[in-house]
Amino acid sequence: MNLTKKSGIIQGKHGKSISYDYQYNSDLDNNTLPTVIFVHGFKGYKDWGAFNLVAEYFAQRGCFFFKFNFSHNGTDPGHPNEFVDLEAFGNNNFSIERSDLGVVIDFVESLKGELPLETKSLSLIGHSRGGADVLMKALEDDRVKKLVTWASVLDVENFLSEELKAKLMKEQKIEIYNGRTNQYMPIYKQFMNDLLENSDIYNLKKRLKNLWQPLLICHGTSDEAVDYVNAEKINELAPNSELFLIDDAGHTFGAKEPWEESDLPKELALLLEKTYHFLVKS
After folding, report:
1. Which of 84, 114, 97 is nearest to 6 (CA)?
2. What is the CATH number of domain 3-153+200-281?
3. Chain Cα centroid distance, residue 218
């Protein structure tokens, strides 16, 4: 099996670059590879943990798999796995992420003809906060035909606690501690301004009834960051959805950063099998 892999940079619309990579099985060069775009979450990036093994899993099974770093996730093209641009991180918001995802979809569509992919069955996978991003994008972009959420949040407007929101409005800035990197990562008041200015867009509790695409909702029952009640509520609201709970799985489905094993953690392997069959086989 020959996997073709490539990385590069796209210019975002908000002054920062979007790093990306993709891979596919070049033995299946038949212009019909289903396209899957992966969206990382808060304090995440495209190469976090076992995400490269995730990409290989889908590519080996005949998908064109594309993953990227949000332009304001705190990394930069020279340091795609490090939070070296905390100013960008502090100025990130859901509007920028939705814009970045639109740029990425446009770019992937532009590769058709040059690479053996087809976008008529374009699918999105979003992890954690990225799950909310793919839900919002699917509601506004008919190019998205299927989507999967992994450990997704539902209530975007309450992504921050009431205490943190009040502090942010009063002090213009809060800091979130990243225990893995030992960094205090800023969030500026603009994040709250974006939530308030776009409250109708971010109200997924009201909007999900209009989601027509097939949706697979995956969550671990031992998620320490986002309670799996979020998955149950999404399943209640979305009309064409399927709920898949993994007993005892945490927020990252057994993966950690760095992931130095050659095999997937068992929870993530189970998640990938279900996701693949939903996106490609169903």
Report:
1. 114
2. 3.40.50.1820
3. 13
